[in-house]
Amino acid sequence: MDHRVSRRTEILTNHLLRRAPPPSSVLQPHRCLSYSPPELSNEFAFDLREMRRLMDGHNLEDRDWLFSVIVQSALFNRRERGGRIFVCPDYNQSMEQQREATMRRIEYLVERGVFRGWLTGEGPEEELRKLALHEVIGMYDHSLAVKLVVHYFLWGGAVKFLGTKRHHDKWLSATENYDMKGCFALSELGHGSNVRGIETITTYDSNTGEFVVNTPCESGQKYWIGGADHATHTIVFSQLYINGSNQGVHAFIAQIRDSDGNICPNIRIADCGHKIGVNGVDNGRIWFDNVRIPRENLLNSVGDVSPTGEYLSAIKNVDQRFAAFLAPLTSGRVIIVGIAVYISKISLAIAVRYALTRRAFSITPNGPEVLLLDYPSHQRRLLPLLAKVYAMSFSANDLKMMYVKRTPKSNKAIHIISSAYKATFTWNNMRTLRECREACGGQGVKSENRVGLFMGEFDAQSTFEGDNNVLMQQVK
């Protein structure tokens, strides 16, 4: 094996350095043509565990524990083939069945304590553990991962970072235990990346001590809200008006369903329908018709309103206040960066392994066919992407470390880097998926081989949590 690896390494080096190939062509009959991929039990010239430690970066034992939890349940479509265990969602199910499966899987993981400490835990170690476990879930199913991002990172993150003690005491434990279900109502039909322009309006009624939330027009309806079909509560972002003066975008907690799942008065919810992917997530639309919520439901770490209707904020600059209210989106971008890298890894592992088993064409009339990976053209299409995903893996780990060790001084740098990485990594992921799908030929089209399905599942990453072209404008 060492000889074959060295030969391929030499050939690739010649390609990169534009050196003339050796006299003996790679496509001549060679004993390598009888090569078959080694099983994982075979010995390698390098330490696989060390390579995994470098690539995963942190919390290897936690990752292995969660995988063991997943493969113990039939909910995850466990299959055993050739002495190995495989789990994969059934994408042939209807949208309704996929959504039901997502909810049942979340309940199973909640019962086994997977999400313990995700909101009530403190410190970098707790945050790294949460990110590691979420990456394992993301490798299994994008819908399940997105559903958890909405509930724990967006809804829960907003309560934790934009709220104060009164919100933490009331909501964090209930959110972590999944006793209530939250969603995050930011995007509207008329406004996505331009959050400053959202049209939902909230006014304060000093006579009753309540806020009144209203959708003034059709373009102001909340759109693409993940969890809208199951959530009991939402974080609703809207323009806050005090005595006729617009104080900018603020975040409020609004109940949208009662404990029995009935939609609350003056709220209308509709489904967004079938999508090109991520159909296990219940994306929906929400309208508010002068919905009254308690004054205490304003997430007030950035700005508050007194009982008499006076607006209070330590941050006088409107732009800085607006940036503070968007802080929960940073965690979303960090998560997307990590998942994009892992999906690229999976697709490349599939395509490279396939290229080491599939043969096409022979050099001589009666000679053996050549392995795909022995063709220079096939090496050029896959190996540079493989090298790039190594570099991106290290970069994603660095970003996670920056995020969990963040300080007020580092927040701007994290915002810029996470914006740049989210755009470039998701674009690269789609390019990688396309190349791997084509490199697998017809096998890349089959659902069970995942690469083709990944293209529909992860294309949305280019636009959610910020359109990539807009995010790149954050980089100076």
From TrEMBL:
Coiled coil feature spans: none
Keyword field contains Methyltransferase: no
Pfam families reported for this sequence: ACOX_C_alpha1, Acyl-CoA_dh_M
Membrane is among the record's keywords: yes
Cofactors: FAD
GO molecular function: acyl-CoA oxidase activity; FAD binding; fatty acid binding
Record-linked InterPro entries: ACOX_C_alpha1 (IPR055060), Acyl-CoA_Oxase/DH_mid-dom (IPR006091), Acyl-CoA_Oxase/DH_mid-dom_sf (IPR046373), Acyl-CoA_oxidase (IPR012258), AcylCo_DH-like_C (IPR036250), AcylCoA_DH/oxidase_NM_dom_sf (IPR009100)
Family: Belongs to the acyl-CoA oxidase family.
GO biological process, alphabetically ordered: fatty acid beta-oxidation using acyl-CoA oxidase; lipid homeostasis
SUPFAM superfamilies in the cross-refs: Acyl-CoA dehydrogenase C-terminal domain-like (SSF47203), Acyl-CoA dehydrogenase NM domain-like (SSF56645)
Annotated ranges, domain Acyl-CoA oxidase C-alpha1: 329-475
Residue intervals of the Acyl-CoA oxidase/dehydrogenase middle domain: 183-291
Sorted UniProt keywords: FAD, Fatty acid metabolism, Flavoprotein, Lipid metabolism, Membrane, Oxidoreductase, Peroxisome, Transmembrane, Transmembrane helix
Transmembrane segments: 334-356
Protein name as annotated: acyl-CoA oxidase
Enzyme Commission (EC) number: 1.3.3.6
Species the sequence originates in: Vigna angularis var. angularis
